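This is your field. Have a critical look at both lines of this record:
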Amino acid sequence: MAGTADPAVTGLSIPGATEWSNETILFDAAWGAGDDRRTRRLVARIAPSGHQVFPDETFLRQHTVMRALSERSDVPMATIHWLETDPSWFGRPFSIMDHVAADVPTDNPPYAGQGWLHDATPEQQARAWDAGVDAMAAVHRVVPEGTTDFQQFVLAAQDSGATGGGLALGEAEAIQVIRAAQQLSTDIVFSTSLGTFGQADAEALGEFADQVVFNSELPPATASTDRWPTLADVSGEAITAAFETAQGIDFFGLIPPWTPPAGTGEGVFGAVSNPYYFQVSFDPGSGEFVVDDELLNVVEEVDGNRDYPQPG
């Protein structure tokens, strides 16, 4: 709300019977001038500075999850507006949300012993119970199948105060982490390999794509041919022609001269032009890698052959 005209805070109150997990302040906020002046009842939740109900510091995680539920679900949830991590205001991070007028079961005295819920009819109590169970079930329906397990990494980064993260992961894992981050509405910016995302995957991110930086050794195939004219010559046919003209490429004696395969061949390794692999073991005593004198021919080994000539 930077730049807001004539902000004012009035009507401060602190709940005495509930909201023990975080320090809570209810207040009226007003801003604007003349006919544009607005007033809204809001709630400030401040991370606990003394007694904590929960043993772990989870305030930032709570804000992330609550904002995701507020923006992306039909779970009964007040609108979450802002998070402030600057401790100069209250000494702790705090968040601001809408105030929702309602009767809340009290913690002091316990609602099971007295109060409006205790005094309600069995039918009213059952309605309150069922509504609570329905809300909890709705929370678990928010995240698309396949992303739940990856939210823990996003939440852990959020808890640590990270503003960015690099994803050195395979295609399936990187996409799942990004989707989990999108679902949680996190502010973290991610960096990942362009090779792990197809164009359809990137398009599916929508506006969240602004928080993803793709990196690659080469510009994408769809990049501007005005900037990289050679991309106009990149095609399947051109790549095939380049492989066909490559013959006996010298690898300085490390492996036999390499020639790309002319055809696809048969079997899993049918297109392997150099089937020989170095066999390496690690010697804990010397702390060195030891290279075997004989090379392994993966094509022969897969076919069950153990007796084959070594490369010349």
Remarks:
- The chain has a mean pLDDT of 80.
